[in-house]
Amino acid sequence: MEKHKISIFKPYSFYEGQKIHIDGGPRNGDWEVVSFTKHKVKLRCPISLKEFEWSRFCYQVEERDEAVWPQEK
């Protein structure tokens, strides 16, 4: 069997109250996790406090300690 370089992605395990930053895409920016199910995640904007529920879409790439949140634009 031939071997290849592959990329592996795993769905991210959210927790309520978690502060996240999405880097790129239509949901780019800072968010707080309000709730989640096996199929959906509800996020809150820390500036407008508006909440949005989407199908789960996030995959972890990096985790940072001591990061400023929300970030200034």
Q: What quaternary form is this?
A: single chain
User: Largest beta sheet, briefly?
Assistant: 4 strands, antiparallel
Task: Report how far the terminal alpha carbons are from each other.
Answer: 49 Å
Taken in chain order, the helices and strands follow as: EEEE
Structural class of the secondary structure composition? Answer: mainly beta
Tell the overall outline. Answer: globular
Count of strand segments: 4
Radius of gyration: 15 Å
Describe this protein's structure.
The chain has 73 residues and is an all-beta fold. It contains no helices and 4 strands. It has a 4-stranded antiparallel sheet, with no helix packed on it. Strand 3 (40-44) and strand 4 (51-55) form a beta hairpin. The N and C termini lie far apart (49 Å). 4% of the residues are buried.
Give the topology:
Elements: E1 19-22, E2 29-36, E3 40-44, E4 51-55
Antiparallel strand pairs: 1-2, 2-3, 3-4
Quick summary:
The chain is an all-beta fold and 73 residues long. It has strands spanning 19-22, 29-36, 40-44, 51-55.
Q: Which features characterize this protein?
A:
mainly beta, globular
